[in-house]
Amino acid sequence: MEFTHINPQGYARMVDVSSKPDSERMAKAQAIVNMKSETLEAIRNGTVKKGDVLAVAQVAGIMGAKQTASLIPMCHPLFISSVDIDFIFDQDNSNIIITSEVKTNGKTGVEMEAITAVTVAALTIYDMCKAVDRWIEVKSIKLLEKSGGKSGFQKRREMDE
Questions:
Q1: Is 127 a catalytic residue?
Q2: Distances (CA, A) of 35 to 7, 92, 122
Q3: Active-site residue among 16, 90, 92, 127?
Q4: Structural domain boundaries of the chain?
Q5: pLDDT at 114
Q6: pTM of the predicted model as reported, rounded to 2 decimal places
Q7: Maximum distance among all alpha carbons in the chain?
Q8: Superfamily for 23-147?
């Protein structure tokens, strides 16, 4: 397997995408935030003292997607067409499941932007709730699916976890 971010001398480089054609691209990612059931209820009921946790996390996730190239050295700056962040309450496991969908029309994919979006949203939930729950856990950050470009549509196959 050849690493495209390494030049022949073994140094890091940004991949040249100038000859690639533009195409519609999409990526979906997920993160899970586990917490005490009381914390989950406080978020659901809007009683966290720092404010509306999910509204702030949603904006933070969008901002995270837009800033990905500033955070990850070899990521290309992209014109992002859309970012959508969703939250699902998993009451049985005391989780919030965060999903993102990021789209662009360009020469390279938006996988890192989708993953960054859910990660920043998860960290925002942690930050806003850490005063009441020190042991919140951010886990299972992963790409769910992607489309566009040379490889077309690809979807994650779940493994026994």
A1: yes
A2: 43, 11, 11
A3: 127
A4: 23-147
A5: 98
A6: 0.91
A7: 56
A8: Molybdopterin cofactor biosynthesis C (MoaC) domain (3.30.70.640)
